[in-house]
Amino acid sequence: MRTRSVIGGGIVVWFLTAMSGCAFDGDDEQADSQAPDEGSASADLDDPAPPPPATPTCDWVASFAGAWVPFNRASNTVNCNMVRGDNSPGVGQLQQSMNLCYQEHLARDNDFGGNTEAALRRTQTRAGTTSDGQYGPNTRKAMLHERIGGGCIRVP
Fold it and tell me: What is 60-154's CATH superfamily?
């Protein structure tokens, strides 16, 4: 038997397949007893795999790699997302970084509204990343952030 992986809908499923041409000693009962149970194999494939963990929403600000960046407190990570409708100090820091590093003129109101989304799209274009109006790990790595002590810096 060998393992195979099948990718479908972004989900990787591992299952066992019987190798053709397996050598048995000629006893058909032994061959039948070694075959995988077809009922359990299909049941395993029908069970949905758990979805990957969602990227948390940025709800705070942290110092990271010499800059102030949006942060998620519960997960203790800078790998977080912000989208239109979010309201947090993380959004305020994004607004500050875009004002300082990309000459935007946003109110630092912690509200990810239409003006912040439009400014982020312009920032993403200038930073050379996908201009989707959503802040996440790819945008964090591509754009400049407010450097601790002044100026702008790109972070990993």
Answer: PGBD-like superfamily/PGBD (1.10.101.10)
